[in-house]
Amino acid sequence: MTRSHVSTRPLTRATLVLLALMCGISIGSAYYAQPLLPAIGRALHVSDAAMGLVPMLTQIGIGAGVLIFMPLGDIVDNRKLILLLVSAHVVTLALVASSSTAGMLYWSSALMGLTTVAPYLLPPFAAKLSPPESRGHVTGFLARGFFAGILLARTVSGYVGYYLAWHAVYWIALASMLVIAALFARHAPTSKPALRLGYGQLLRSLATVFLQEPQLRLAALTQGLLFGAFNAFWTSLAFYLETPQFHLPSYVAGLFGVIGLAGALGAPLFGKLADRRGPEFAVKLGTSIALLSWVVFMFLGGRLAGLMVGVLLLDLGITASHISNQAIIYRLAPEIRSRVTTLYILGLFTGGASLSRLATLAWSAYGWYGVCTLGFVATAIAAVVNFVPGKRRVTDVVGKHFLAE
């Protein structure tokens, strides 16, 4: 039995801003460590390669959290679910901040990732509470908050870690989450679930949804590869800037987040382009721009100016592709929106976790050019699969094969 979500209050402009802020503050927790990895490694007496486990375990935790909790958005009150997960997230931030050994940091980072689900529940939550004619604007607005959080988290943590200590970053994040959660509890509307399904049925239906929706499979593959390449860059940047070629401290790596933010904030222009030419065209353009960024990193990355240009292109491309892919998957049936989002986000973090780890190994073995090669290859695959005609795509062929079985 299905029915529409019903809100007790309309989604006002102030509430939309609140949701975007919550997206940014929540997702920031997963990225504070990246510019601090060398400093944390020295403090805990851990090698650069071993420190690569921290972002990888965080990404794996997020993927697991999305799989476990995200589908519940189709069958429970989203507001209550988000508040419960944010409360758990505050506890895990305290665990990370209290870590005194590498082992404790590893498992607390994984738990922190497990509870970093709110920023992925918020866009479909807002979409459910918005009329169809403004849904693209709403999800695009939250996407800006999402990417601003990812990029500015590095800036904040770079400075705080340099002038205070890496632990302080997480205590400040904890306080910020408490404030934003209190505002959300006071102002966010409620929504009634669209379906009456058991949790087991809900999870089993994920495979069916994935196999039946070729657009979802393509979006998840594309963004997983792009997000993985994105994480490969940011995981390696702090190590690269500390080399004798630059000899720069952690907060400089964080400052690149501000540069990337300029690119990310320009991406809503692609939303308008998607309205005119279609989101599929905007995805192709976004992946092409991201691919160009890796060419810049490869040939001009030995200079700060080259890194700056590359960061602008990378963040513009990945944000444009993300917004356009969301526009594609949110056109699918509204009663499966949380499960569609679950599968899409799982694609992101499968790529993010895999390439974060591969990036630290590439860095340890081959340095900056190893990281650039990894990022270029992943992004090239993402671009190619979107330019291949639909019937010949691997994602389409695989889906048809399993449905036939």
Automatic annotation (TrEMBL):
The chain crosses the membrane at residues 49-69, 81-98, 142-162, 168-185, 218-239, 251-270, 282-301, 342-360, 366-388. Pfam families: MFS_1. InterPro entries: MFS (IPR011701), MFS_dom (IPR020846), MFS_trans_sf (IPR036259). Residues 12-393 form the Major facilitator superfamily (MFS) profile domain. Keywords: Membrane, Transmembrane, Transmembrane helix. This is Transporter. The lineage of its organism: Bacteria, Pseudomonadati, Pseudomonadota, Betaproteobacteria, Burkholderiales.
